[in-house]
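Contributing new records

If you add data, match the layout below exactly. Sequence lines come first and carry their own label; structure lines follow with theirs. Keep one chain per record. Anything else will be rejected by the validation script.
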Amino acid sequence: MSRKQYRLPESDDLPSLPTENLEKRREQIYPTLNDAELRQAGRFGEERHFRDGEQVFAAGQAKPDILFILRGRLALGRHDGFGSSDLIAILGPGQFSGEEGQLVGRPAMEDAWAVGTLDALALSPEALRMLLVAQADLGERIVRAMILRRIVLVRKNSGGPVIVAPHGHPRVRELERFLSANGHPYTVHDPAQDPAAAGLAALHGATAADWPLVLCPGAAPKRDPSLVELGRCIGLFQDTDPAKIWDVVVVGAGPAGLATAVYAASEGLSVLALETRAYGGQAAASARIENYFGFPTGITGGALTGRAYVQAEKFGVEVAIPAAAAGLNPASRPLEVVLCEGLGQVRARTVVLACGARYRRPALANLKRFEGRGVYYWASPIEARLCKGSEVILVGGGNSAGQGAVFLAGHASKVHMLVRRGGLAETMSSYLVSRIEATPNIELHAHADIAALVGEEGDLQTVRVRDIRSRQERDFAVRHVFLFIGADPNTGWLRDSGIEVDRNGFICTGRNVAAIGSAAVRKALETSVPGVFAIGDVRAESTKRVAAAVGEGAAVVAQIHEFLAEAQAASPSSG
C-alpha cells in the first residue's frame, strides 16, 4: 500500500465526521497544541523523522508511539480489513496521533503515513501517562481527544476484526456482544451475500467448520475463536510477566473493581484487574441510571463505567478481558490467583474480590438451548435491534428490570412485564414505577411467571405464561425474552480458598468473619484470608447500589495501604 491510495485534500481540512455532534467537536477531537505545550511533551519523548510516503504505523501494530507533530503532516486512514483505506484526517504541526487504547499500548486502529518530510516527538504509552499526570490541564485535552477519536473509529468501523460467517450463525452474536460491550469496532459479512467476504474465506481456505472466520489487523486468521482468543487478537487480553508481583490484583471490573483500580493506581500501586466478559459489569447494561450522585439528568451505565475504565487506563491499570478467575491459593505468599482456560496464574501482595454476582437462571426446561437465541440477561443495543417492532417479554421487578423495560419500549412494539408480586412498588424506585406507568407500550402482568419456552432448531417461538394464583396458562407468540430476576454471588470459584461466606454465598468481611483470629486486627473489608479483601455486591451485608460499590472501592485502598505497611514492618528484611 502506498500513500497514493489516499485521496489527499488540497488543504488541512478534516473530512466529515460520522455525526453532526462529532462534527461540531472537531477542535476537541484534533486540537492544536502551542509551542509551550509541545515543549512540555518534549520532556517525555524523543524526536523521530519520517520520509515522505513512509508508513508510520499500521492498524494492528502493538504499542505504537503517540506522535506530537513538529513539522510536516501525518495522514490517518481507516482500516476496513479488505485492503483499502479511506482518509480520516490529516494532522499538522502541533497536533498528535493516538486514541484511547494507546493509553495502555493496545494495537493501533488506523493506518498512518507521512505526508512530506515528517518530524515528530514520539512518546511511548508509559511516557504519555507520565505527561498526563505531570501536566493536568494539557492531559485533560489529550484524554478528551483520545476518547472522542475512539468514538469516531468505532462508528467508522476502523481497525476492528472482520467477522465472516453465514447469516444467523449462532456464535456471531456471542462475538458481537463481546466486542460491543467492550466498545470495539467490528464488521460482519455473509460470504453468500458479500463477494469480498467470500474472497477472504477462499483465500484462507475456510470451511463450514471454521465459521466464524475472524480477521484482526496484523494477526493471523482465527477460526471459530474463543473469547480469549478474540481478546488477545484485539489487545484486550495481553500476556503479563508470570514472575511479576502486583501490589493489587482486582477480580472484577465493575463499578467496585474499577473504583479500586483507579484509586490504587493513582496512589502509585501497580494494579491488574481481571474481568470475565466486559468492563463495567452488570451496571454497564443499565439503560439509564438516574439516581447516581452528580448526574441530575441521569447517565447510561455504559457511559458511567466507560469513563471509569478510561480513567483506570490513564493511571496505568492493566485490565485483562476476558480473564476469569478459577481459584485462589490462600497459603502462598505472595497470593496466587489462578485463571481459567489454562492461562496460568498471577501473583499479588493483595487481592480485592469485586467479582459481583451471576445472573440468576430460572428452572426452565430448554433454557440453555435458547440462551443467546431468544433469551437474554441484559438489554443492549444489539438485542434492541433484534426485537425492533416486535413484542417481547421481560421478567423482573427490580430497578434493573425497570430500566430494561423502559429502554426496550423504545424499540419493541410492546413489552410484557412479568412480576411474581402484586406490583412494582415494593421492589422498584418510585421514579421508575412512574415512568413505566407512563409508557403506553409496557403492560404489567402481576402474579405471573414463565411456565415454558417453546421453539424449534434453537430459535424461541412461543412463551407460556402462568398466573401464579389461578395456575391458568396463556401462550404468547414472542421470540425474545429478557430475564432480570436477580443474581447470585459469584463465589463458586472460591470454594477451596478458605474464604468464609455466609449461608447465601456472600463473602464475610471484618467483624462478620467467624474464622479463628482476632477480629480487632482485621480490616473492615478484609476477608478471612489476610490480604484478601471483598467489596461491592459480592460482599455480605453490602448495599447493592453503584454508589455504594464505588465508595467501597475507594475505602478498600486505604486498608490495602495499611496492610502493605504492616506486612513491610513485619518482614525480617525490614529490620
